[in-house]
Amino acid sequence: MSGNAVIYGKVTKVLVEALNVDEGEVTPEATLQGDLGAESIDFLDIVFRLEREFAIKIPRGELFPESVFQGNPEFVSEGRVTDRGMGELRLRMPYADLDDFDHDRQLTSVGDLFTVDLVTRYVAWKLSRPAEAAATPVLSEQR
Predict the structure, then answer these.
(1) Fewest CB within 10 angstroms: 14, 102, 134, 142, which?
(2) pLDDT, tens digit, 9 for 90 and up, residues 24-39
(3) 119 CB contacts (<8 Å, ≥6 apart)?
(4) Taking the C-alpha atoms of 119, 39, 30 and 88 in order, what is their torsion angle to the nearest 10 degrees?
């Protein structure tokens, strides 16, 4: 079994426990909110469970960046994420595959980025980083 398959299995276990869903519902493309019914409080539980399961520290806002755009007109225009907004998203979520979203860029679709696959990618990314780097939040203010 590959490393990512092991990570995916553990992420699935965490999500089944945190969201009280059937294991069959947890697929790589399942969105946490739309498909699995996660609510804002569930994201905290998911973070705590991932930290425990993988013995990692997840700084606030690193896995689930809060209000990335916060109504900033440089990041969003007419309901679509701008080039600068995409840059900010890539900076805050270097572990995410944003190629499909980059074609659509609808602000209302941002929640759909948070899939089981994204969580698996995040954990793999986190585990591959040196310990001191893994504890440093990825924020635009560090540019």
Answers:
(1) 142
(2) 999 999 999 999 999 9
(3) 11, 15, 32, 46, 50, 63
(4) -50
Residues 56, 119, single domain; the answer is yes
Are 76 and 82 spatial neighbours (Cβ–Cβ below 8 Å)?
A: yes
Question: How much is the pTM?
Answer: 0.84
Output the CA torsion sign for 29, 30, 31, 32.
negative
Same domain, 15 and 55: yes
* Cβ-based burial of 15 (10 A; exposed 0-12, middle 13-18, buried ≥19): buried
**Count of CB atoms within 10 A of residue 103's CB?**
7
Tokens representing 18 are 């945190």
How distant is the alpha carbon of residue 75 from its chain centre? 19
